[in-house]
């Protein structure tokens, strides 16, 4: 299947077209059935805000904002680096984009003073790779 | 790097670079709350002797102000 471009229609038989079709389905599901947050994660984020620690949400997904909107948590993070932001500002492939470093920059935080929290192996790998870059 | 092992994959997360792994971020909230409580407690709690009940023979000084020390002398036996 050809790669296509991010502007491809959801009906296009390309990787990007398929991704856009998937995004449409995810957004429809978010609007119809909603989404459930991990209670411990929300409590932790609220705690960090309470004690003045800045936080950013980092994801390559383009459904981040709609997910946060469905959860009524759009203001819980100080910065958002997601598929929309990184796509518009970076030319690197998704897997090689220094997204956590971009988040630190947006927060005005030195990368060596930041903590990355991840539940995906790919995210842990990316965080560890970027930690090596700044150490 | 903190890993959250939602799928019971703590060892895998550690192997790929997580320095600390929890099963749920609530575990960190609990730890942080305990630490914050301790810091708050240590910073704001007066020394234990301040809890001694006041009486006519027991002067409690909550803030030491050297320039007012002369006021204490008449009350001392």
Helix count from the secondary structure assignment of chain B: 2
Radius of gyration of chain A: 16 Å
Average residue pLDDT of chain B = 68
Shape of chain B: rod-shaped
Portion in strands of chain A: 5-15%
Number of domains of chain B: 1
Strands ordered across the widest β-sheet of chain A: 1-2
What does this structure look like?
The complex is a heterodimer of chains A (135) and B (77). With 135 residues, chain A is mainly alpha-helical. Chain A has two domains: 34 residues, no CATH class; 99 residues, Rossmann fold (3-Layer(aba) Sandwich). Chain A has six helices and three strands. In chain A, α3 links the parallel β1 and β2. The relative contact order of chain A is 0.10. Chain B has one domain. In chain B, β1, α1 and β2 form a beta-alpha-beta unit.
Task: Compile the SSE list and pairings.
The complex is a heterodimer of chains A (135) and B (77).
Chain A: H1 15-33, H2 39-50, E1 56-58, H3 64-71, E2 79-81, H4 83-89, H5 99-107, E3 117-118, H6 121-134
Parallel strand pairs in A: 1-2
Chain B: E1 2-4, H1 10-15, E2 20-22, H2 26-44
Parallel strand pairs in B: 1-2
Concise summary:
By secondary structure, chain A is mainly alpha-helical. Chain A has helices at residues 15-33, 39-50, 64-71, 83-89, 99-107, 121-134; strands at 56-58, 79-81, 117-118.
Keyword list:
heterodimer; A: 135 residues; mainly alpha; two-stranded parallel sheet; globular; B: 77 residues; two-stranded parallel ribbon; rod-shaped
